[in-house]
Amino acid sequence: MGGAVLEVEGVTRRFGSVVANDEVGLRVRPGEVVGLLGHNGAGKTTLVSQVVGLLRPNGGSIRVAGVDVIADPATARRCVALQPQAQAPLDGLTPRAAIEIAGRLRGLSKGKARAAAHALADELDIREWFDRRATPDGGGLSGGVRRLTAFAMAAVAPVPLVILDEPTNDVDAARRRRLWETVRRLGDDGAGVLLVTHNVVEAERVVDELVVLDRGRVVVAGSPSRLRGTSDDYLRLELSLHPDGDDPSESSIDVPIPITRRVRAGRRVLLTLSAADAEAAVAWATTLRTHERIEGYALAPVTLEDAYLAATADAAAITEEATDA
Ligand SMILES: Nc1ncnc2c1ncn2[C@@H]1O[C@H](COP(=O)(O)OP(=O)(O)OP(=O)(O)O)[C@@H](O)[C@H]1O
């Protein structure tokens, strides 16, 4: 319906008393990169396992390229390329062979599989290791090159839906950037991409839509700009606290400016305030630093990470409260 390559509606999956997915709904259209974000244990992998037919939902429906995954898992599976979170078993193979085999299994001719593997090796800058064999003891290839090879295996042939589960784990910064560019290209070439990640900051660069899961439920969904809280009218003041130091923003009475959102993440406190109060905020933070009540501060535009942390406020590490001064 609506041409979506992935339609998840009301999916619930329990493991005993744990509700790993609770009435989850999301949609990926052709050409769209959708980020699925959430802390550890939020239910991301459980959802992916159901989309590829490895787990059956307790309730709800999943369609891939119009095919009902529960009624016809084999046909649906052929419409999806998955890079799993666990490292791919490459033992005994070179990246060249692994990527070419993946292309052949997806129906490419020998020549096309070879050409696509070469192109990806260049795109991801892994030529140096293209003909090096992975050994069963985990040697031969680094974790990062194994991860990039697994990504290339998922990206080698055109397919309606590509699912990438933490594709940048172990990958160095320069190649991560290349990988993100390739993810964007997959979308621009017409695939729908579901990108599972913890990395909000990097995901922001490539995704069209974001779905945030928290304890099995979708807590926020929308474009990055919508989630960020949009406009330039707001700024974020980040206070870095001393180890064991008190938090000078804890009581709204002590804060001389109106704060629309306050999020505590470890020793960082993120305060959202009106851009009109920037000068007063800097004056206050400078005084706090001069009196050594904080280690430092930074004033910057509101980021997606702020919105993500607020949406998922994890009781143990993060507390959120609205303080209307
Ligand atoms: N096979 C299973 N048996 C029992 N509980 C499970 C099983 N798989 C997942 N869970 C539980 O379901 C919840 C969601 O787990 P899931 O692995 O889907 O989260 P996740 O968001 O992928 O986490 P991570 O980012 O750490 O990979 C967790 O509470 C987890 O302990």
From TrEMBL:
It comes from the Bacteria. GO terms for biological process: response to antibiotic. Residues 6-240 form the ABC transporter domain. Keywords: Antibiotic resistance, ATP-binding, Nucleotide-binding, Transport. One of its GO terms (molecular function) is ATP binding. It is a peripheral membrane protein. GO terms for cellular component: plasma membrane. The keyword ATP-binding applies. Its main location: membrane. Transmembrane segments: none annotated. Pfam families: ABC_tran. The keyword DNA-binding does not apply. It is found in: Cell membrane. This is ATP-binding cassette domain-containing protein. It comes from Phytoactinopolyspora mesophila. The lineage of its organism: Bacteria, Bacillati, Actinomycetota, Actinomycetes, Jiangellales.
